[in-house]
Amino acid sequence: MCARVLLTGWFSFLDGEATAGDVLALRRVEEVLRREGIDYDVAWSAGFRPSALHLDEVRPPAYTHLVFVCGPLHGPRVEELHRQFAHCVRIAVGTSVLDPQDPAVSGFHRVLARDAPAAEPEPDLAAHAPAEPATPVVGVILTSGRHEYGERRRHGEAAEELTGWLMEKDCACLELETRLDSRDWRLCATPGQVQSVLARMDLVVTDRLHGLVLALRGGVPALAVDPVEGGAKLTAQAEACGWPALVPVDRLSTRRLDHWWNWCLTSGRVAARQVRREFLEDPESDSAAGLVAALSERPETAVARGGPGGGGRRLRREAAAEGGSARPDAR
Hints:
Elements: E1 4-9, H1 20-36, E2 39-42, E3 65-72, H2 76-84, E4 89-96, H3 103-106, E5 110-115, E6 137-141, H4 155-167, E7 172-175, H5 191-198, E8 203-206, H6 209-217, E9 222-226, H7 233-241, E10 246-248, H8 254-264, H9 267-281, H10 291-295, H11 317-324
Parallel strand pairs: 1-2, 1-3, 3-4, 4-5, 6-7, 6-8, 8-9, 9-10
């Protein structure tokens, strides 16, 4: 009789969890079975992969062997597999054994443990799993919004669309925060720490002004969305920095986001490094340059000048259009 194997693990249980290590261990087992020409299916949690094969959909008589991959052997969910697949040869591989007398352990015909009492430990299956393709590492810096913009605020809408769009991308997203806090280990305590994190990103997606500026300061491309209807400080800052990858919230669409995503991960890398060079080479181009002159005015002679001053860098949109096919209507 030909073997037909059902691969299970903690990633199969509805209330279990799928960790990167578990799934890599599964990949290693799949690799071995494919190499030997052994037919198999994988049972996934409906909470993790809704469209895949789930345990409650499986027909146990269709299988000759049940294999449990990775993780600790304990608890009623593992014990239930022994009852549900009582007719199968049941094997655990790459697992941890806490108590050899536990029914969850003793129910298996073979246990090929990675660690067990009085046994030599074995390398975890994930260590020898097939290599996974690298994906972009994306820092995500979002804000709940500034109330000074009143009815023009569309921060919630922008964040919802951005995060939904990011879920469809094959990338590693890291939620980042520019707020500093010396009492919370989850947050950076200094600007240097923030900059060190950002420098390791391939791309920053943000609706914050300083998310844009700090990314470019580190030579990292930023895909910015201005969450204020009609544009506000983020749009102004993108113009001041000559940065084209900005989408206004009232023109937010998957097409525009995809366009700037592709540009940022190609031509945008060079453009971001150029912005960084400009920051370093021309530190006197910001409004601080006029501060000394303003401070030299005597109170009795100073004239109120409530309006904004001029200045700003040339826009890089023309260069982006030439080097990265950045269409003007993509904004």
